[in-house]
Amino acid sequence: MLNKTPLWKTLLVIFVITIGALYASPNLYGEDPAVQVSGLRGVEVDASTLDQIKSQLDENNIETMSVALEDGQVLARFKDTENQLKARDLLDDTYGRDYSVALNLTPATPDWLAAVGGTPMKLGLDLSGGVSFLMEVNMKEAVNKAQTGLVGDFRSELRGEKIRYRSVKADGDAVKVIFRNVEDIEKAEDFLSKQNRDLLFTIDEDALTLKATMTEQKQKEIREYALQQNITIIRNRVNELGVAEPLVQRQGQKHIVIELPGVQDTAKAKEILNATATIEFRMVDSDNDISNALDGRVPASSQLLYERNGTPVLLKKRIMLTGDHIVDANSGFDEYSRPQVNITLDSPGGSKFSNATKDNIGKPMATVFIEYKGTDRKDAEGNMIFEKVEEVISVATIQARLGKSFRITGAGSQQEAHNLALLLRAGALIAPIQIVEERTVGPSLGAENIKLGFQAIVGGFALVFIFMMIYYRAFGVVANLALGANLIMIVGVMSMIPGATLTLPGMAGIVLTVGMAVDANVLIFERIREELRSGKSVQQSIHQGYDAAFSTILDANITTLIAAFILFAVGTGPIKGFAVTLSIGIITSMFTAIVGTRTVVNAVWGGKRLDKLSI
Amino acid sequence: MQILKLNETVAFMRIRKPAMILSIIVMLAAIASLATNKLNFGLDFTGGVKVEVGFEQAADLKKMREVLDANGFDDAVVQLFGTSRDVVIRMGERPNVKAEMLGNEILDILKEGMGVNVEMRRIEFVGASVGGELTEQGGLAMLTALICILVYVAFRFEWRFAVGSVFALFHDVLLTLGLFSVLQIEFDLTVLAAILAVIGYSLNDTIVVSDRIRENFRKVREGGPEEIINISLTQTLSRTFITSITTLLVLAALFFKGGALIHGFATALLFGVFVGTYSSIYIASSVALAFGISKEDLIPEVIEKEGADQEEMMP
């Protein structure tokens, strides 16, 4: 019999739409104000932190809906924002030093929905309010710095090998060494090329010069490293900001995107992102008694600092070396598989350090991390006051005279060694970064954008609904059902895909899909009308209509998809949001407008003897 | 219900020459406007700083300008945005101020100088280098889209249709750009997105028409290419109308309800849908006809299956 849908297909349609509706439903529940506490720099949140926070909130009579450990952070939910703010202030006082305490809105998705992975759609910054930055890494500077390093390396390497040279200097993107005679050039080339396998050496015997250029591969490595290092540092700084769900992500070859939802004070955020951190190596003052210093009698040449765990350390004021000489630092294991941090210095740093350490073998040396942190206080002119925070991050005994590369052992756990290496690198930015783009949306504008977008969707929907019902009567109702199902599917799929965010242009994309999704039905219905006019039977016409329209719909939608994909590839932020909703809308509309309506049409009209059709 | 009752075939192609001339004239006008008026590029492309502030009462623009003048921001452009309570301030980068701090500075000056509550709604800062890159990327995106579509249509249909549809797309994009140039509406990223959506929509239309032409070339035994194109256009006219109406309806909702931020987007699409409908009839089809599309190019009637069209293209 013509126009009968097999049972499995009907069930499939019902199943798919139900799944869509299920995952769309978390959007119906609102959000609870919450405070989240997460560890900074390797400090972990555990069950004991949770208990402490719970009892502290109870003691201060702050009403909570729930306090729980979720994904390595403590999340406390509140009934209202008043309690939320009180709790934030309280927790920030207690935990602000080692933990990030941030305000957040957590979805109030019921447990059974959350258990199957249901979450509401992520809102873009233009809807939720907040700030997004695009930072650019100065890659020229990164390569320059490496080149300057090479100049120093060549000098000391040649001197070490007792090869005489006239000069070593940077020349364009190469390093040029001028010699006194040809013999030395060959000796130098022989030696240097063994030391530096990632360089290309060319000899010009007439000019008595040896030229070393970095291979493309090497330059790429430098750039890649500079980008990665900056991302690591920025992640650290962003964590200090106390923002719930921040995003730090690379974009292309030299850009980093930072999204900070809910942040209002962009001036503070910028200061912190642009802040500088440095490292200093200083000797521990073991000549004086630390208990005297703790009583307030600190010798004039020394300074009292603290380790993160609160242990006081008395340090000499003289700085042996600053962090800008650090070329690289990474964590690994020593021969007894104990964690260690390997540090590489540049040439001038190496000789400075070697001089400074030769008389101090056997004595303890401290590494100090200095950071300028923005505070909430402002000075008379309204500028933010920066606090210089000095912290001893490691104390180690000098075992031998240290040179260009050395290691720090006894850093504790592997995680601690990793963090130490990270901090050491943070003290030595290879390439400066700069904010090249900022987009800040205030909370009121965000809320207004949601309202406007929602109104546009409802308005567009209503108009199309009415039109279709008048124009195609019963079949119009079927098309409207499909349209409604399509909207649910779009929202459902958007909620399911973790990377998809809803933006204002994205909402416009939904509106547009509403208009275009009916096109499939219009094509089918017009075709059915044509077949009816040409005298075919009702069942024949329905069958032919769907069949003939199918390939047209497919072609038309695939080409639109091509445009959407290109938009996705080149677009950023809100535009990407538009591309995402448009693509999802096209795909779901094909399902609802073709398979969905066919199922309904077949169920209502299929397989019966009919003389007329309400179309 | 039916809006169009067509029993006779409409001779669309009879006026294809005048229509073509009209199209060329309008396109030349668009080019002329683009060359002289240029596009009013938004912040996304030019770089600079934009601050949107909200007031509780109608904004006092004169006072705002005075306050900004007094603080050395005499080059700032101050305009109402959407409502009388929203104001947008736009300016370029300046040498001795860190560009990324400019927005905050303006906000502070206004908060201090205006004497009323000033609410920060939006700060945008785009570095000049980023803007330049974006212009390049945007152009590239448009070009890539056109080429990909050309390849797809050539693969699915026939090269004459592909050339016709790309001509039509070029026509739509050019006219939309021309409109933005003539009216000097700000051209920002969302408008670029809208233009790509116009490409998608216009193509949708062109494909539907081409599909029917191909079908009729295979099915209708008598009549020359022009006659068959006319038949196909008449058959699809009803659908073209209805889809355009529904799309225009939702776009009208977007235009009137979507707020000031989405205005440019809605304008580009409203106009694009309009010219897109025209171009699928008078550009795409008549270009294919001008290139000499004939029955022989499409005749091998095989039952629809994957790859059937591919073979036709091969010599």
Secondary-structure map:
The complex is a heterodimer of chains A (615) and B (315).
Chain A: H1 7-24, E1 31-39, H2 47-59, E2 66-70, E3 73-77, H3 81-95, E4 99-107, H4 111-115, E5 122-123, H5 125-128, E6 130-137, H6 139-160, E7 165-171, E8 174-179, H7 182-195, E9 199-204, E10 209-214, H8 216-240, E11 247-251, E12 255-261, H9 266-274, E13 277-284, H10 290-294, E14 302-306, E15 312-322, E16 326-333, E17 339-345, H11 347-357, E18 364-378, E19 384-397, E20 405-409, H12 414-426, E21 433-441, H13 443-496, E22 501-502, H14 504-533, H15 538-570, H16 573-605
Parallel strand pairs in A: 5-22
Antiparallel strand pairs in A: 1-3, 1-4, 2-3, 6-12, 6-21, 7-8, 8-10, 9-10, 11-12, 13-15, 13-18, 14-15, 16-17, 17-20, 18-19
Helix pairs in contact in A: 1-13, 6-8, 8-12, 13-14, 13-16, 14-15, 14-16, 15-16
Chain B: H1 16-36, E1 40-41, H2 43-46, E2 48-54, H3 61-70, E3 77-81, E4 83-91, H4 99-113, E5 119-126, H5 128-156, H6 159-183, E6 186-187, H7 189-219, H8 225-257, H9 263-290, H10 295-298, H11 308-313
Helix pairs in contact in B: 1-6, 5-6, 5-7, 6-7, 6-9, 7-8, 7-9, 8-9
